[in-house]
Amino acid sequence: MKHWFLTAAGFLSLGLGVLGIFLPLLPTTPFVLLASACFMRSSPRFHRWLLNHAVFGPVIKNWQTRRAISPEVRRRGSFLMVITFTFSIWMAPSTILKIILFLFFIIALTIFRRLPVFDPVAHREENH
């Protein structure tokens, strides 16, 4: 029962993370990390698949080993947040909703930009 619950929670979290790529108020990274944690406890096969995924794997590995994101993830994430929030604010039907979305944008971007950054290229032996 626990196995099935964790597997279902992992897929739900992964789905929400993928949606978060396109929806500004839905964060991608926390849901992908939650999916990884669920799969780690329920399905080694899905956990391996997620760790080896071209997009999500490096982010998960970097977070698990260093509790940090790469500079590329920071740039890409910031850019996508600006684009999606700008579009959402532009499409919002009322001024109060535009203000609320703008405040959420400022909070989300501030939290995201404060995450620790680790650049593996800068820490290679030949650079020291």
From TrEMBL:
Keyword annotations of the record: Cell inner membrane, Cell membrane, Membrane, Transmembrane, Transmembrane helix
TM regions (residue ranges): 79-112
Intracellular or extracellular location(s): Cell inner membrane
Cellular component annotations (GO), alphabetically ordered: plasma membrane
InterPro entries: DUF454 (IPR007401)
Membrane topology: Multi-pass membrane protein
PANTHER family registered for this protein in UniProt: INNER MEMBRANE PROTEIN YBAN
Name the record gives this protein: Inner membrane protein
Organism: Vibrio aerogenes CECT 7868
Lineage: Bacteria, Pseudomonadati, Pseudomonadota, Gammaproteobacteria, Vibrionales
